[in-house]
Specification:
Largest sheet: 5 strands, antiparallel
Number of domains: 2
CATH topology of the largest domain: Jelly Rolls
CATH class of the largest domain: Mainly Beta
Number of strands: 13
Strand order of the largest sheet: 5-4-13-8-11
Radius of gyration: 28 Å
Strand content: 35-45%
Helix content: under 10%
Shape: elongated
Order of helices and strands: EEEEEHEEEEEEEE
């Protein structure tokens, strides 16, 4: 604590711990006369909070409205139906989306996606979120529940799995309407071989795909590297 002098006059100064104060007789208080400074040049951003690496992929079904048979065996979004593309300035003609400017282009590189809708990651810790819009083209006489999994695997190990459920009531009024699924989570990929670090958005299984009742229209997958 600063030990201010007694009976100061207006404008008197006092320095303590390299900070100078001036006395204001009108208010009867000592106020800081010089700004407080601190040398942070040697600090390290150990959690990379100031430079988080990130990227975004865009899914587009492409073509005309498909039939249920047209998306058979497509349990992953982007497998045998539609495609994922990274949203950068360079490929904006493909995604129809252009980053605001080059400053906002993705800074996380080396993540790839194959024709099975599998994203492949270099080893690390990632935050991943997906938002997909679906179009319904079949309803039944019963309430239906669908599970959507954003699943990650690292070789033979589990890397993370998060799911979301969608309830479709038995009404034809929903035909050709849109439903949006959002799911996100934290994934830890430890395998040294990138092809073994996989993540995919799964809709049912190959023997019982969700696509019998709906298909993905478009959507996004956002990825941040945390460590």
């Amino acid at each position: 604590m600063a030990d201010f002098p007694n009976n100061p006059s207006n404008g008197d100064t006092y320095t303590s711990a390299n900070v100078t104060y001036a006395y204001n007789s009108t208010k009867g208080v000592w106020t800081m006369a010089t700004p407080f400074t601190s040398d942070v040049s040697n600090l390290t951003d150990i959690n990379n909070l100031l430079g988080t690496k990130w990227t975004r992929f865009y899914f587009d079904r492409g073509g005309s409205t498909p039939s249920p048979s047209g998306v058979a065996n497509s349990e992953n979004v982007g497998k045998n139906f539609g495609s994922w593309t990274e949203t950068t300035s360079a490929n904006s003609g493909t995604t129809y989306l252009t980053p605001y400017n080059s400053t906002y282009d993705p800074t996380l590189i080396n993540i790839t996606v194959n024709s099975n809708g599998e994203f492949q990651f270099p080893a690390g810790v990632y935050e991943v979120s997906a938002s997909i819009q679906f179009k319904i083209y079949n309803t039944s006489s019963n309430l239906k529940k669908y599970d959507f999994y954003l699943y990650g695997e690292s070789g033979s190990d589990w890397a993370g799995s998060y799911d979301e459920q969608l309830l479709v009531p038995p009404t034809s009024a929903l035909l050709n309407n849109d439903m949006i699924i959002k799911v996100s989570g934290l994934y830890v990929f430890e395998n040294a071989t990138q092809a073994n670090n996989k993540l995919y958005l799964q809709m049912g299984t190959s023997s019982n795909p969700v696509y019998a009742d709906m298909y993905p229209d478009f959507g996004f997958l956002d990825i941040k590297k945390l460590g």
